[in-house]
Amino acid sequence: MNIADIGIGIVGLGGMGHLHASNMRTAGATIVAGADLVAEQREGFGVEFDAATYESHEGLITDEEVDTVVVTTPNKFHEPISVAALEAGCNVLVEKPLGHTLESAERIAAAAAESDGICMVGFHNRHAGSAAMFDEYKRRGRFGELTHVEAEYVRRRGVPGPGSWFTDSQLAGGGALLDIGVHAIDLALYTLDFPEVVEVSGVARTTFGTKTEYADPDGFGANWDAKAETYDVDDAVSAFIRCANGQTISLEAGWATNRDSSMDFRVRGTEAGAHFEIGDTDLKILGASTAGTDHYADSELTGDSSVTGHAEQDQRFLETIVAGEQPATNTVEEALTVQRVIDAIYRSSKSGRAVRLNPEPEAVHHAD
Questions:
Q1: Which residue numbers delimit the Gfo/Idh/MocA-like oxidoreductase N-terminal domain (predicted)?
Q2: pLDDT tens digits for range 137-173
């Protein structure tokens, strides 16, 4: 098998669906089908990619030309689509988060374990240029032992459309934490080689979504009307994550806050540290030396801006299918660890106490 033999079906034909389809077509795969409830989305996708279109995922999965399914729907529908595709023996790339709840994510993981298909999860930021350079310098021992990660994914004003599925707990499962904080958590755990997480403490806040007056200078959330729209999710989260080996992670995630926007990612090591922006191509290494005289020894690295995390991730997915091996990155097990941390943050916020993680933590549904 080669990449050209892979028949891709995209479920969810919005922006992310088109992005994955474009990346995979560029990589040499064949886009054979797309599915979406919205007729206009189906029509546009079918024309752009010369693909068959379906109103439901069931029709797409039974299409004989489809052997690989990409899931880019609202979070609640990740499970039924992914499980159906995996049970049919298809390969699956499901966008983050793995599920809208921990229980849902666990059911996807169980289906993936039983399937002949390969399953990966869409955490693209670990494939961006900055993260790739960090990985290589970490492999060379430049940072020594990693001790702490400061992870921020914060918008000053950037709530997705109120009343859309993003702000509906029944469809999304959560707010800013599940939408953008999930990226920061995954990248932090990935940076630390996914250590065992033993304790999580966090606070989830809903500050802006219930306001009838909301200043939105950039027009991120069009037609704001809190009274008329569904908004029962968090719009900002602060959390602290402690790992079994003494490594720690501090997290700030938010759709809207009265502070500067930030996608800063800072890693501390015993020999040097690193600073970059999530998803960016550049990396700053922060060191110090006694050579000649005591001084700071910093290096600024500039990566290839033409290489994107999304494209690299999709290429890895296709190469994994061709190899016929279980993925070495973006695994379901890693995504399930991220989901357990998210669930623990919500439980900590609800109880007002730190949450210890057991091998099989009790999951809860959450809305705030």
A1: 7-123
A2: 999 999 999 999 999 999 999 998 777 899 999 999 9
CATH of 3-124+310-329, one of 3.40.50.720, 3.40.640.10, 3.30.70.260, 2.40.50.140: 3.40.50.720
Q: Are 176 and 237 in contact (CB under 8 A)?
A: yes
State whether residue 259 is helix, strand or coil: coil
Could you tell me how far CA 173 lies from the centroid of its own chain? Answer: 14
- At residue 215 the predicted structure's pLDDT band, cuts being 50, 70 and 90, is confident
Q: Nearest 5 degrees, angle CA 79-CA 84-CA 87?
A: 120
- Which of 3.30.360.10, 3.40.50.80, 3.40.50.360, 3.40.50.720 would CATH assign to domain 126-304+337-356? 3.30.360.10
The Cα 185–Cα 328 span in angstroms is 19
- The residue-averaged pLDDT of 327-356 equals 98
Phi and psi at residue 55, in whole multiples of 5°? -80, -25
Closest CA to 189 of 69, 320, 344: 344
Angle at 126 between CA 121 and CA 129, to 5 degrees: 140
Token pair for residue 344?
């623990």
In the block, residue with structure tokens 């921990």: 102
Contact of 102 with 366, CB cutoff 8 Å: no
**C-alpha span between 81 and 95 (Å, rounded):** 12
